[in-house]
Amino acid sequence: MSCSERNRGGGEEEEERRHEQPVLPRSVEMDPNSVSRNGSITAPQLTIDENLLVDPKLLFIGSKIGEGAHGKVYQGRYGDRIVAVKVLHRGSTYEERASLENRFAREVNMMSRVKHENLVKFIGACKDPLMVIVTELLPGMSLRRYLVGIRPGKLDLHVAVKFAIDIARAMECLHANGIIHRDLKPDNLLLTANQKSVKLADFGLAREETVTEMMTAETGTYRWMAPELYSTVTLRQGEKKHYNNKVDVYSFGIVLWELLTNRMPFEGMSNLQAAYAAAFKQERPSMPENISPDLAFIIQSCWVEDPNLRPSFSQIVRMLNSFLFTLSPAPPSLDSDANDAAASNENDSMNDLSARTRGKFAFIRQLFTARKTKNPQ
Fold first, then answer.
1. Options 183, 187, 202, 248, the catalytic residue
2. At 315, which CATH number?
3. Fewest Cβ atoms nearer than 10 Å: which of 163, 261, 302, 340?
4. How far is CA 19 from CA 131, 177, 221, 238, in A?
5. Is there a single domain that holds both residue 268 and residue 193?
6. Residue 109 forms part of a structural domain
7. What's the structural domain count of the chain?
8. Is residue 10 included in any domain, yes or no?
């Protein structure tokens, strides 16, 4: 299933990830393939549709352009097309290989299912002799590298908000298809060649909300992870998953804060210190004094402690578009009467949307105001 495409209006941190420990719910029957050689239970093996596979004879791998926890990314060529080639690790033991092959199949199946102008385009995959995912190659850099490159400067406000809308639309598409990304951060956001748009990449930690296996907590990168992911309590078999797609909304709030401040979240803290501060002390990055109240409200709504109070990405897109409209200059007038009437109607519509949105989340603003008064940052 694909989402409708719409017209739009390097890292400094230390990478620390937790190992996933899939839990098999009681409702899932054991498959012979799910029992390892030593008798332990592993996740049922996933498969990849043959139509998604590329011809390895037409694939050429060039120079390395990136590296992550689960593989390396190279510039390459598939036929006559320049592409990005992600080569995933195979693992050294039987159990590790089975787990990584499952991760690979899951990532391929999800990437092939969703299409959006702000998602990196999936081209195909290859299982042998290497586990490879082929996508479009964006000649631009990661958002992390771009932000680091312009420090101590900041993005123009129009640019920052448009980037945020791109990201929110990509996430809106994923959530509409039942996919939780779980690793939303500037390193996984890539700029287009003209540096005017952003696309979301790396589905390595993504999961479907409807999968029968238990979703594992403590995944992703600490500075951007939602507090509910830090649970140290092992889930019992068959117990309902204890987080949902609102973990991505929290991460988006941190990314939006970065776009507006061009600073590292939880500056001066190690990754573990940042995790402890967010999860157990309910701390958040400090809000700049000169930030727009509307943008501050959106950020605070996204990273509020209770996931149920966080907005959806559809609501976030509407709020950001409403704010962007207030920044945009009026279009050139050809027919002043017609244009004035159209502008008046559009303005009334946007103001009505803004009023409804603010009313819906007014209690969140009061919550943060009370917290700030009690515990000033």
1. 183
2. 1.10.510.10
3. 340
4. 20, 26, 12, 21
5. yes
6. yes
7. 2
8. no
